[in-house]
Amino acid sequence: MLDTLRTLFLTALHAFHRRATVRYPEQKPYLPPRYRGRIILSRDPDGAERCVACSLCAVACPVDCISLQKTEADGRWYPEYFRINFSRCIFCGLCEEACPTYAIQLTPDFEMGEYARSSLVYEKEDLLISGTGKYPDYSFYAVAGIPVPGKARGMAERERPPVDLHSLLP
Amino acid sequence: MTYPVILTIVLMPVVLLGLATVLTWVERRLLGLWQDRHGPDRVGPGGMLQAVADGTKILFKQDWVPPFADRGVFVAAPAIGMMAVLLSFAVIPVTAHAGIAGDMNVGLLFILGMMGVGVYAVVLAGWSSNSKYALLGGMRAAAQMISYEVFMGLSLLGVVMMTGSFSLRDIVAAQAGLWFIVPQCLGFGVFMLAGIAETHRLPFDLPEGENELGAGFHTEYSGMKFGMFFIAEYAGIVLVSCLVTTLYLGGWRGPWLPAGVWFALKTCGVVVFFILLRASLPRPRYDQLMALGWKVLLPLSLFNVMATGTILMLRASL
Amino acid sequence: MHALALLAAGITVMGAIMVITRRVAVHAVLYLVVTLLALSVVLVMLGASFAAMLEVIIYAGAIMVLFIFVIMMLNLGQPDSQREKEWLRPRAWLGPGVLAAIVCMELLYCASPLSGPARLPVPITAHDVGLSLFGRYVLMVELVSFLLLAGLVTAFHIGRHREGGH
């Protein structure tokens, strides 16, 4: 009985507490940078696409919402198309963890409601952003040992020049 | 039948239905306040027109009768509930002169009778829906409401004994010196609990029990038929609050302000208290509810009747 | 006033006939409720408003709800309404119907000398009811309370949990 009255009193006191919720469309709540929202594809610092179409994200995706096709140009790999079905995506972030090139990233944006389900299928041009996302200095081809135009074999960071096998002869 | 009485008869349902509709918004705002939320505050100033928006929406919803339901009874059930609640207001004395039939010599019994008829709305809705959740809700409602009607009637007996009349206006008149909440504090407590159970409001909303029964007796209802149950429930809250005000809080009595204002203020206070109960207390289990009724409230109300009778007899013999 | 009482009485009779002829048990009980409510209106017209309210509270509000409760628990379905249909053949209701009609006519014949100019009835208050219950009829009240006590004890005995199975 007394417990019940105490409960009533404490609940009534909550009238003078600060509201825990915010008035959303006018007042946006703070979302941390690592919030898992809308997925984007980022670019290198020099403006090239980071994605190398390795399909690891599509493999890691638990709901199979990513589909892509590899193509090559000048020794670099690109996705020919890169499609994310956001009506399936559960924003788990496993694709981001699986990505070896920091290309696929989740952003703190969640306002992507649509009236038609088909509008939630994002193509590569919808996903690609012009910036580097969360890793501003990282460039996969600058550290990878693959020769690309403008960077011959052995010119990557922390990579020694290639060994001339003929010089090893006795 | 004088002209003001007919006017009151026409106006009262309009005012009551409006009040019950606005109460849905008031309740949601207050719940928000006590749960550190904002509540509906978008439509109109402070969200006041939310009730209008909800009403418009529910009027335009499809009014669907399930093919497996017993059609006639299914349609009649919400009407019975609404009718019983609205009829009860006929005997509420708002002031010494306002009100429809505040002088009715069996006014209190009339309200108890109408509450008894109101049980049919819930039970028949549960039966005619022909679905298991609705049926379970209806059975719970039948047992709960019949049981708590007993304690409600017994808790009122103390007031009736002190007044010597069933007329609600006489009861208010008898509270000229001291409000009955002081000498009848036991009866007041029992009446409050029984009133909550009788209107199947939270925390005693076991007939609905949305986490275990879907929505209980109105699971199959849609559109304005559901709306009628909804409005009848809120009108029921207003009714019980009016009764508490009349029986225990001195009705329209109070200094400085006009009588009608005092009545409205006290009623609003009780309504807010009911909403506070909803905001803070969890729902008991069904057997706990029944045990509370028969093992605690029944002895308490019987003791109250005996004590009141004894004291009145002793005072009369002195 | 007179017309209102006649209307209520008519509703009572109609409701009673409907109670007998309905095939779905809940519908029959609902007509019984209508009958009881109309009967309480008749009682109010006769000046016994206290008795009328008790009729609404106890019969219409409690006992009939218990009837419906039991019917819901038993969950009568299609076969029962078939059986009810069989019971409603003329062969079954003709005999009782004729007997009831004779009783009704006798009642009307006996009551006809009582009819006269309508006069306002004397209201019977709760005070009068209490005085007659605990004055003239105190023996009956005591006997009824014996009966209720017996019923209570029986209900307790049947509803008691038995230790160690059935």
From TrEMBL, chain A:
Annotated positions binding [4Fe-4S] cluster 2:
C61, C89, C92, C95
Supply one GO CC term from the record.
plasma membrane
Q: Name one GO molecular function term.
A: quinone binding
Q: What is its EC number?
A: 7.1.1.-
Cofactor(s) the protein needs: [4Fe-4S] cluster
A Pfam family that this protein carries is: Fer4_7
Record field: catalytic activity:
a quinone + NADH + 5 H(+)(in) = a quinol + NAD(+) + 4 H(+)(out)
The 4Fe-4S ferredoxin-type domain extends over 39-71, 80-109
Determine if Ligase is one of this entry's keywords.
no
Q: Which keywords are on file for this protein?
A: 4Fe-4S, Cell membrane, Iron, Iron-sulfur, Membrane, Metal-binding, NAD, Quinone, Repeat, Translocase, Ubiquinone
Q: Does the keyword Membrane apply?
A: yes
GO process terms (BP): aerobic respiration
Q: What class of enzyme is it?
A: translocase
**Residues that bind [4Fe-4S] cluster 1:** C51, C54, C57, C99
Query: Any idea where this protein resides?
Result: Cell inner membrane; Cell membrane
Classify the protein's membrane topology as the record does: Peripheral membrane protein
The parts of the chain that form a coiled coil are none
Domain of life of the source: Bacteria
What the record notes about the co-factor is: Binds 2 [4Fe-4S] clusters per subunit.
Give a short account of what the protein does: NDH-1 shuttles electrons from NADH, via FMN and iron-sulfur (Fe-S) centers, to quinones in the respiratory chain. The immediate electron acceptor for the enzyme in this species is believed to be ubiquinone. Couples the redox reaction to proton translocation (for every two electrons transferred, four hydrogen ions are translocated across the cytoplasmic membrane), and thus conserves the redox energy in a proton gradient.
Return the similarity comment. Answer: Belongs to the complex I 23 kDa subunit family.
Q: How does it assemble?
A: NDH-1 is composed of 14 different subunits. Subunits NuoA, H, J, K, L, M, N constitute the membrane sector of the complex. NDH-1 is composed of 13 different subunits. Subunits NuoA, H, J, K, L, M, N constitute the membrane sector of the complex.
Q: What is this protein called?
A: NADH-quinone oxidoreductase subunit I
UniProtKB/TrEMBL annotation, chain B:
**GO terms for CC?**
plasma membrane
In terms of PROSITE patterns, this protein maps to: COMPLEX1_ND1_1, COMPLEX1_ND1_2
Q: Which residues cross the membrane?
A: 6-26, 73-94, 106-127, 148-166, 178-197, 226-250, 256-277, 289-314
For the protein in the UniProt heading, the enzyme class is: translocase
What membrane topology term does the record carry? Multi-pass membrane protein
Q: Which domain of life is it from?
A: Bacteria
Q: What is its main location?
A: membrane
Described by its record, this protein's role is as follows: NDH-1 shuttles electrons from NADH, via FMN and iron-sulfur (Fe-S) centers, to quinones in the respiratory chain. The immediate electron acceptor for the enzyme in this species is believed to be ubiquinone. Couples the redox reaction to proton translocation (for every two electrons transferred, four hydrogen ions are translocated across the cytoplasmic membrane), and thus conserves the redox energy in a proton gradient. This subunit may bind ubiquinone.
Report the protein name in the record.
NADH-quinone oxidoreductase subunit H
From TrEMBL, chain C:
Its protein name is NADH-quinone oxidoreductase subunit J
- Assigned keywords, A-Z: Cell membrane, Membrane, NAD, Quinone, Translocase, Transmembrane, Transmembrane helix
Q: Which reaction does it catalyse?
A: a quinone + NADH + 5 H(+)(in) = a quinol + NAD(+) + 4 H(+)(out)
Q: How does it sit in the membrane?
A: Multi-pass membrane protein
The uppermost taxa in this organism's lineage are:
Bacteria, Pseudomonadati, Pseudomonadota, Alphaproteobacteria, Acetobacterales
Q: Which GO terms describe its molecular function?
A: NADH dehydrogenase (ubiquinone) activity; quinone binding
- List residues traversing the bilayer: 6-21, 28-50, 56-76, 97-114, 134-158
* UniProt cross-references to Pfam families, sorted A to Z: Oxidored_q3 (PF00499)
Query: Does the record's keyword annotation contain Transmembrane helix?
Result: yes
Q: Function, please?
A: NDH-1 shuttles electrons from NADH, via FMN and iron-sulfur (Fe-S) centers, to quinones in the respiratory chain. Couples the redox reaction to proton translocation (for every two electrons transferred, four hydrogen ions are translocated across the cytoplasmic membrane), and thus conserves the redox energy in a proton gradient.
Q: Which NCBIfam families match?
A: PRK06638.1-1
* Family recorded in the similarity comment: Belongs to the complex I subunit 6 family.
